[in-house]
Amino acid sequence: MSLRASAVRRARDPDLDGVHHPWDTQQKMPRVIHPPNWPRPQGYSNGMAARGEFLAVAGQVAWDQHKEIVSTQFTLQFRRALANVLAIVNAAGGEARHLISLTIYVTDKTEYENNLPAIGAAYRELMGKHFPAMALVEVAGLLEKGAKIEISALAVIEGADS
């Protein structure tokens, strides 16, 4: 979109003023998208924009290289599932900072909430202060026996296909 078209679009929609848009810049990725006048999210981003090679990561549970769930403890399952997501991103040539979206499926929202401090610590250990767009979904069950959590992800790896 040209600068003129961008200005015209902003003139028609004042809510867009001050928001970073993928058509406005060639910045390196990913960029946090945050609508003006919205409260700041904590622990996630409302949106992310990026250029590069798109990577879809299938749902990962807390299993090891032998396809065995590593623990019955919720926090250890969270950590391992997230580590498995990052292993796939790394295998594609990316890093945690390339993740633009995480969808976390849990079998018990209350267990998730009760373990938030430890989950937060595990998250920061693996992801640092990178907070992509996220969704938490409570489900009746997961396919893998014993799994309490499954994480799917989207990443955009810069330079690969920009």
Describe this structure in words.
The protein has 162 residues and is an alpha+beta fold. The protein has helices spanning 3-12, 74-91, 109-114, 116-127; strands at 31-33, 47-49, 53-60, 99-106, 133-138, 149-157. It is globular, with a radius of gyration of 18 Å. The strands form 2 sheets. A 4-stranded mixed β-sheet has the order 3-6-4-5. The two termini are 17 Å apart. It has 4 helices and 6 strands, in the order H-E-E-E-H-E-H-H-E-E. The longest helix is centred in the middle third of the chain and has 18 residues, at 74-91.
- Name the helix and strand elements from N-terminus to C-terminus, one letter apiece: HEEEHEHHEE
Q: Give the percentage of residues in beta strands.
A: 15-25%
Strand order of the largest sheet: 3-6-4-5
* Contiguous runs where pLDDT drops below 50 for at least 5 residues: 1-25
The overall pLDDT, averaged over residues, is 85
Q: End-to-end span in angstroms?
A: 17 Å
Shape: globular
Tell me the structural class. Answer: alpha+beta
> How many E-type strands?
6
Q: What would you report as the Rg, rounded to the nearest angstrom? A: 18 Å
Helix content: 25-40%
Number of helices: 4
Describe this protein with a few key phrases.
162 residues; alpha+beta; four-stranded mixed sheet; two-stranded antiparallel ribbon; 4 helices; globular; disordered N terminus
